[in-house]
Amino acid sequence: MRRGAAFASLLDEAFSGLWRARRVTVVSILQISFSLFLVGLFLLAAENLGGVVDTLREETAVTLFLRSGADEASKATVERTALESKLVAAVRRVSAEEARGRFARSFGSLTGAAGTLSGNPFPASIELDLLPGAISSAALRPFLANLAASPAVEEVQFDVDWIRRLRGVVRLVAAAGLATGVFLALGAAFTIANVVRLTILLHRDEIDILRLVGAPEVLIRGPFLLGGVLQGLFGGIVALGLLALAFRGLLFFVSSTENVLLGVFVVRFLSPAICGVLVLGGVLAGLLGGTVASRRGHV
Amino acid sequence: MIEFYRVSKEYHGRRVLKNLSFKVAQGEFVFLTGPSGAGKTTVLKLLYRAEGPGEGQILVNGRNVGAMTPGRVPELRRTMGIVFQDYKLLPSRTVFENVSFVLKFLGVPLAERRRRAYQVLRLVELHHRVNALPEELSGGEQQRVALARALVNEPELLVADEPTGNLDHRLAQEVMRLFSQINVRGTTVLVATHDVNLIRETGRRCLTLDRGGVLEGLVEAALPPQAAWRRDGGVRLPPREGEEH
User: Fold this and answer.
1) Which CATH class is domain A61-157?
2) Are A213 and A269 in contact (CB under 8 A)?
3) Nearest to B109 among A5, A12, A214 (CB)
4) Residue B240's domain is classified under what CATH number?
5) For a pLDDT cut of 90, what percent of chain B falls above it?
6) CB proximity A117 to B under 8 Å
7) Which helix (H) or strand (E) segment is A249 a member of?
8) Are strands B80-83 and B157-161 parallel, antiparallel or unpaired?
9) Is residue B17 part of a domain?
10) Does A207 touch chain B (CB under 8 A)?
11) What is the dihedral of CA B72, B74, B79, B82, to 10 degrees?
12) Considering only CB atoms, which chain A residues are within 8 Å of B50?
């Protein structure tokens, strides 16, 4: 009960301290919000680009177009090789007739044109669904080359390189976001440290008196440390709010524009876990600033 | 309760206390007097470890104050009530907040804080001014708030530095009456003052500091009239032992 009451007192004093230096507190919260907002923008871009990569990967199957005269034994060998590779989840054989049917379903207006051709122009194929993680495996390229060399296979359709490049871009965006985030968070921590120090100066008399009458050190410094944490927390929450507003604005822009490609890239907001990490980042910056400002010798 | 044994203290090469030794028993009411610069405030500061002793040993309730780690000092101070010469009230806080400030930090619930603050404010007859700010109070009232704050944690030892320095004689007597009341309740009281008339009127044991050491222990009966005090460097001092009153 006493500990709970002491903590409530700390919190009360921390809020009063922030309120008394409210102008500086607001500036500090805005700065940490801005820092975290920028970090959030990077994370938002990385999240959506990552989503695009995932979607493309899921939608991309390896297609092995078969030679017209390929015998059944060769086709079976290709299927067995694929399944034994530990890169493939499922193998599906598509006949020439099925391929024509798919074309007809996807491009209805062109069905007539295809019908004018003599015979079936669509080759039979074997489609491979890759296992998760196979796309980044070093074994994928030699595996595809091995399949391409099979006498039953005429052509392998799968461009792994551009997906890898896109994934590299995603990683770069995320890394840039992280680096910017650390840099800006340190700046925010510095601001918070100064705000806390100013609050300490405003409360110098109270601190001296508290010391003289025997208040425990942790209870003297606690409100200032908590003040830093609260600033960081509010900064994180404000940053999230700004990000949500920006995302809504972007969605509105995308829905009102005719550029359909943008719709592929802007699809989802940050996951709850990343939102939590963003707020936690603010709290940690506040904790760092508060700790630096309220360490022994300063208070 | 308090024991100073051969305590010396220097400030920037100037010796303020020299081989100071004295004892104060549990439940005693003792005055510490002497001219300005004699080291009265230094003695009190050494007691609550606002200053570390240069040499010697200081015991408070059997605890060696000089050897205490900084982490143990708050614990020591919580066993004392301290009344400062300049009151040290928080100007932006009400009387109630000033008195209960430390209790709040020690996690005492609000209802209990209110009860204890009311009790001590009633003792100093300021229970009707709980919501007043220090600037709205007279000097005497501020002094009584400082006293209430010192008492609210029910200290074993009450230490006061020139508690009547800024008060007129009537208010000073009133404050001394309060100290006596507190002492009757079992609290050991140590008051540093240069007001010899007040010491005489209160009639308690008196330790006089002179040139860094305790010159003599005086009780009211033995205290010479102020007119008999000698002058030393412009400062009035009690007569030395053996001198005619």
Assistant:
1) alpha beta
2) no
3) A5
4) 3.40.50.300
5) 16
6) no
7) helix A217-256
8) parallel
9) yes
10) no
11) 140
12) 212
Segment B107-124 mean pLDDT: 87
Contacts of B111 in chain A (CB under 8 A): none
- First-to-last C-alpha distance (Å) of chain B: 32
Asked if B233 is an interface residue toward chain A (Cβ–Cβ < 8 A), one would say no
Amino acid present at A117: L
Residues A134 and A141 sit within 8 Å (Cβ to Cβ): no
Q: What is the ipTM for the molecules in this complex? A: 0.73
At residue A57, the pLDDT reads 60
Owner of token pair 């930090």? B105
A-B C-beta contacts closer than 8 Å: 67
Structure tokens at B181: 């009341």
The range of the structural domain enclosing residue B228 comes to 1-72+188-245
Residues carrying CATH 3.30.70.3040, chain A: 61-157
Residue A150 gets which letter from DSSP? S
Instruction: Decide if B63 is inside a domain.
Output: yes
**Minimal Cα–Cα distance from A234 to chain B, Å?**
25
Total number of domains constituting chain B: 1
The residue with greater pLDDT, B119 or A167, is B119
Confidence of residue A15 (pLDDT cuts 50, 70, 90): confident
Q: How far is A194 from chain B (nearest CA, A)?
A: 23
Predicted local distance difference test score (pLDDT) of residue A291: 83
Least confident of A160-169, A266-275, B67-76: A160-169
Exposed, middle or buried: residue B37 (CB in 10 Å: 0-12, 13-18, 19+)?
middle
Residue B5 domain-assigned (yes or no)? yes
Those residues with Cβ within 8 angstroms of residue A236's Cβ, 6 or more apart along the chain or in another chain? A32, A33, A36, A278, A279, A280, A281, A282, A283
Tell me which chain B residues have a C-beta less than 8 angstroms from the C-beta of A226: none
DSSP code per residue over B90-116? -TTS-HHHHHHHHHHHTT--HHHHHHH
The reply to whether B90 falls in a domain is: no
Residues in chain B: 245
When comparing pLDDT for A119 and B183, which is higher?
A: B183
Q: Which residues of A touch B108 (CB under 8 A)?
A: 2, 5
Q: Which residues of A touch B76 (CB under 8 A)?
A: 214
Instruction: Show the tokens assigned to B200.
Output: 């005489």
Cα separation, B160 vs B87, in Å, equals: 10
Look at residue B159 and tell me whether its pLDDT is greater than 90: yes
pLDDT, one tens digit per residue, over B164-221 is 877 778 778 878 888 888 888 888 999 998 888 888 887 788 888 876 555 544 433 3
Exposure of A105 in the CB half-sphere (CA atoms within 13 A):
6
Alpha-carbon distance A18 to nearest alpha carbon in chain B (angstroms): 15
- Report which DSSP code applies to A123: P
Alpha helices in A130-216 (DSSP H): 140-148, 160-202, 204-212
